[in-house]
Amino acid sequence: MLWIASLWLLWASSILGAPVNKQRQKVLLISFDGFRWDYDRDVDTPNLDKMAKDGVKALYVTPPYLTITSPTHFTLLTGRYIENHGVIHNMWFNTTTTEKMPYYQTLFVNEWWDNGTLPIWITAQRQGLKAGSLHFPGTASSYQGQVAMVREWEPPLYNYKNETVWQENTDKVMGWFRDQDLDFISFYFGEPDGTGHRHGPDSPERREMVKQVDRTVGYIRQSAEQHGLSGHLNIIITADHGMSTVYRNGLVEEITLSKIPGFSFRDLSFHLVDYGPSGMLLPKPGMLEKVYNALKGAHPHLHVFKKEEMPERLHFAKNDRILPIILFADPGYVINGVLQFNKGEHGFDNEDMDMKPFFRAVGPAFHKNLEVGPFETVNIYPLMCHILGIQPEVNDGHLNATKHMLVTNSALVAVGFTVCKNQILFLGKYQHQHIVNVFSPYFLFCFR
Ligand SMILES: [Zn+2]
Questions:
Q1: At a CB cut-off of 8 Å and minimum separation 6, what does 35 contact?
Q2: What pLDDT, in 10s, does the model give residues 67-103?
Q3: What's the rounded Cα separation, in Å, for the pair 113 and 426?
Q4: How many CB atoms lie under 10 A from the CB of residue 144?
Q5: Among the listed residues 179, 228, 189, 220, the one whose alpha carbon sits nearest the alpha carbon of residue 362
Q6: Do 180 and 130 form a contact (C-beta atoms < 8 A)?
Q7: Residues 225-232: contacts with CB within 8 Å, 24+ apart?
Q8: How far, in Å, CA of 29 to CA of 173, rounded?
Q9: How far away, in angstroms, is 377 Cα from ligand 1 center?
Q10: Ligand 1 centroid – CA 20 distance (Å)
Q11: Alpha carbons 436 and 11: distance in angstroms, whole number
């Protein structure tokens, strides 16, 4: 019976000897801002369902804290927690001059983004690949003097909702892959975040916007096909955070800092509040304990931490840009300095299910029709580097968290081959008559 094992071995060698991927694989990373993990549950989403069938779906993914747009997108691009990559807020600020800049203007403040951590575009280009980005937060900045070789950012007062423009942008990105042979592109859509804020995550408007996202996912895959990319393009679709309904109008006792006894904005040198459920405060010299004691325990749904007390799991303390007092509210609540109006918000604890984004992936690197458990979004970066065949920078993710989504690659096959070969020889020596029975399922296990 040993000859059967030898034949299997020969067959295996011929399979394993062939290069697994003849053409270098490409990666398209897409973010639909604020697409919560369960948004496909109350809307028909045929294209997202088809993508899950043709590829991989995660139950949900966990973003880093603070769950707001620029910091969490920079985690997707770097694999680092926010305290480690330093883009700690959507807003650039200067505590000395008390200047602040809103989200859009902050996209152009180079030193806010370029503070030691390299996004994947730069790493890929330094290793001989070509990278591009369309509208992804961080695109407009340079990093150690380098930029993504093809890039485009949205103009001010941009309409993030126009479906026709979404399709035009899709064709543009596919054209960059085909005509300029880019290896990696990050591609950003500003919805359903805007609709979720304005109307709330349970609104009919949000459900309509999810249908628009779904149609666009269908368009993206069709466009990839038409551009001849399907054979070597991997598409990863995810988001930066979820969305949660805000309670007010007498439904709950709102958190309003200006009404808390013993607290005064006059005791602060600088603050960032009226920004959803999160806030940061810089007390004047000598006022830290007074401010802290006034706020701590002042409202049952307000969490107040000195920077050094922040729960380690949030990874939001060890950075000079983070202010000495950090505030966050429970789901349903926002922290009003004075007043806010959004019906939906994010920025809550990343353990809150409403903050979890969705995740889909399809392409030659991924298994088909596979649903996987949740993982943290820091792990998407090492996954992308692995598919692209580049050496990642230092990061907080682990390939182990996601590699079960991948079809066996050449490195894994080599290990599997060694193990299987030893097993074949072992079986061949000691259990001839059991070789076929035992070996067949094991072989399948090794090479699936
Ligand atoms: Zn966002």
A1: 192, 210, 213, 238, 239, 242, 357, 358
A2: 999 999 999 999 999 999 999 999 999 999 999 999 9
A3: 56
A4: 9
A5: 220
A6: yes
A7: 226/174, 227/174, 227/175, 227/177, 227/178, 228/178, 229/26, 229/174, 229/177, 229/178, 230/363, 231/23, 231/364, 232/21, 232/23, 232/24, 232/25, 232/26, 232/363, 232/364
A8: 11
A9: 14
A10: 37
A11: 15
**For residue 22, what pLDDT is reported?**
56
CB 83 within 8 A of CB 316: yes
List the domains of the chain with CATH numbers: 2-18+411-445 (no CATH), 26-245+351-405 (3.40.720.10), 255-341 (3.30.1360.180)
Residues annotated as catalytic are 69
Q: How far is the CA of 344 from the centre of ligand 1 (A)?
A: 12
Amino acid at 141: S
Distance in angstroms (rounded) separating the CA atoms of residues 334 and 172: 39
138-172: per-residue pLDDT in tens? 999 999 999 999 999 999 999 999 999 999 999 99
Q: 192 preceded by cis ω (within 30°)?
A: yes
d(CA 311, CA 213): 35
Q: Are 11 and 349 in contact (CB under 8 A)?
A: no
DSSP state at residue 115: S
Predicted TM-score (pTM) above 0.90: no
d(CA 347, CA 65): 8
